[in-house]
Specification:
The chain has five helices and six strands, in the order H-H-H-H-E-E-H-E-E-E-E. The protein is α+β, with helices and mostly antiparallel strands and 117 residues long. It starts with 18 loop residues before the first helix and ends with a strand. The protein is 41% helix and 19% strand. 3% of the residues are buried. The radius of gyration is 20 Å and the shape is elongated. It has a two-stranded antiparallel ribbon. Strands 3-6 form a two-stranded antiparallel sheet. A two-stranded antiparallel ribbon has the order 4-5. The longest helix is centred in the middle third of the chain and has 16 residues.
C-alpha cells in the first residue's frame, strides 16, 4: 500500500516555483505577485516591527525599560531616567504602526516611541 505524497510548489511574496501555477495566467494575480516581490523587504520589516511591538514593550516596562525606535528602523532600550532626559530634550516622538504596505493604521498596536534626529 504505497501512499502518494502530496506536495505543492512554493510561492511566497510573489516568489517561488508555484507562483505561475497559482496565478493560472490571471493578469491581476500576476501583478499582485510582482508587487509582493517588489515589497518583500518592507512587508517583512512591518511584520518584525509588529511582532516586536506586540511582544516586548510590556516586558521591558516591567523592568523599568522602554523600547524606542531609531530613525533607521532599529530599536534601542532605555531606562526611565534616559527616557525622561530624551523627552525633556524633545527627542521623542510618537509613530502609529501601519499595515498593508503603510496604507492603514494598525489599531492592534500601541503607538511607538521614536527617537527624533
Amino acid at each position: 500500500d504505497d501512499a502518494a505524497v502530496i506536495s505543492s510548489k512554493y510561492c511566497a511574496y510573489g516568489e517561488g516555483d508555484g507562483c505561475e501555477d497559482l496565478a493560472e495566467g490571471n493578469p491581476l494575480i500576476l501583478e499582485l505577485q510582482r508587487k509582493s516581490a517588489a515589497n518583500k523587504e518592507a512587508i517583512q520589516q512591518d511584520a518584525r516591527n509588529a511582532f516586536y511591538m506586540k511582544n516586548y514593550p510590556d516586558w521591558f516596562a516591567s523592568v523599568g525599560k522602554t523600547m524606542v525606535k531609531k530613525p533607521d528602523g532599529t530599536f534601542i532600550v532605555v531606562n526611565d531616567e534616559e527616557l525622561a532626559q530624551l523627552k525633556a530634550n524633545n527627542k521623542i516622538g510618537l509613530e502609529y504602526a501601519k499595515t498593508m504596505g503603510g496604507k492603514f493604521t494598525d489599531v492592534t498596536q500601541k503607538p511607538i516611541m521614536v527617537l527624533k534626529e
